[in-house]
Request: fold
Amino acid sequence: MKRVFSCFLFQTRPGDSLSRGRRIVFWLWNALLLGLAAVALGLCSLALAPGQYSWQMFFDYLSRPALAALNLLPPVALAALLYGLTGRAWLAYLLTALPVLGLSVGNYYKLAFRDDPVIAADLLLLGEAGNMAGKYQLFLPDKLAAALACAALCVPLLALLARGRPLRRGRLLTAGISLACAAALVPVYGSDALYAQAASAEHINQWSSTQQYISRGLLYPFLHSVKDALPNPPEGYSERETAALLAQYQDADIPEDRKVNIVGVMLEAFADFSVFDQIEFQQDVYAGYHALEAESYSGRLLTNIFAGGTVDTERAFLTGMAPANTNYRGDTSSYVWYLKDQGYRATGDHPSNNWFYNRANVNAYLGFDQYRFMEDFYQHLSDDDNSYDYVFFPNLTQSVLEQVKGDEPLFSFSVSYQGHGPYGDYECWWGEAEDYIANYELDDASRYILSNYLGSVKSTQGFLMDMVDQFRASDEPIVLVVFGDHKPWLGNGNSVYNALGIPLDQDTKEGFYNYWSTSYLIWGNDAAKAALGVELVGEGPDISPCFLMDVLFQQLGWEGSAYMQAARECREEIPVIHNYGACITADGALTRSLSEQQRAAVRQFRQLEYYRAHHFSS
Reply:
């Protein structure tokens, strides 16, 4: 036995004295060990794939051999390729483990903090993700620690037991076969039909995009998402036909006597929780906002994001398109450009870093003349890393009131930072938890999280109402548009929502709205109402963020650009076109099964937005 180990297991190449059969067994042994280690790495990734969801999902993966194979093949193929390139099993495994574990760990924490998996498009925002990760309190659960330990153990074992180093010819052959296999699998991983069939749907909510994703593991859905990381034409798209459709409309000018100043403010994680009977309020936290709603045109916004991803709602409003289908690498068609063509000056504020979501560059691509960030303005006004509403609102209000006195009408759009999660779970930042809620059945951490959110909401409303009062007193016509970007984070894995018993099951309309809805309002001062000849009050429709600017224009009596006019026809048929397949029809029904006329409206809108995203027009 000792002789076998000395001349077989621990050798870099089989000795010449070994028979042909034993030499083959030697290389098979090395390949088998590396293959088993890669499979174990894939299993660790699968164990982490559901995050803090039930272990049952892991066993669901294993009960479906095809799904398990689709998640295990990538590390095996990559390890084989790297073995061919490096000639060392331990190094090939290590170089495979780094991206696989990096993706798995990142996905685990993203699920925990935001209930959102990692997709390929997230790789375009690695800098932002790294900076935001520092704002959350990381933890090391047993499952994650065990997976990392298991993966780490394989490196020395391979270094000890799989020391075979193929000659150049064998390495090239191994690498070539691996590349050929990978190329053959590309259409398999990109197939939408296979992806639709691959879900392990028994223990998930079919309406939850997150659970739909993780029901397929991690490596498989991640690789499937690669094709969506770059713009992808909608089914049946014809550039010529879409251009002909748009040519049926003409950009309409805004009448000079109806050019009012527009001030848009998107509030971070702002949502009206007074609709939840499960919360026992100790005070009317939303009194200010409800008073403003009463003198506004208001409705509900059905966003495509939850607890994070602010920029999706932001850019949908500014462009009239789904941001997921847009690559912001140069001047991009937007309603900002249209307003500038109509003589408007476009400015805005965000009291946080200019690198986040690449706003410093993208806002210029969208047409803004000037945008103030933490680096060039707010850092001199606040001791915090980001400026909160007590700094943000007064400075924005002052800036707007100065700008509306100029010769050009103003379009201002700003994004607040206060309200950004996570919220503290060990003390109340805004007084005492009892000041906001009773709900004594909640544990202390949940009560602090919820009270900190509500305290922030109340604070925001106070500064918002101060802004409104100053706009109300102005002789310049000002229209204010306020909306929330998404529902807030309330504990890892939505723990506070769950503890309160707030349904988030998206297979029901109630759960769908609880998960995705925020609110919007359109308010005008007396000078604006006089110029427009409208009161700007009433109940607005439930809409997607990409249709909010159109609703604003209709309330102002403006016709809008050719794109807006064409998209308006789609909105009147399907006012909510959700990025995850659900729609809300004109009669308020939540559905995924559309009539032919409704499907045609959705298809037309997707083709219009794709054309717009790839044909800049100012």
Observations:
- The radius of gyration is 28 Å.
- The longest strand covers residues 517-524.
- The first helix runs from residue 2 to 9.
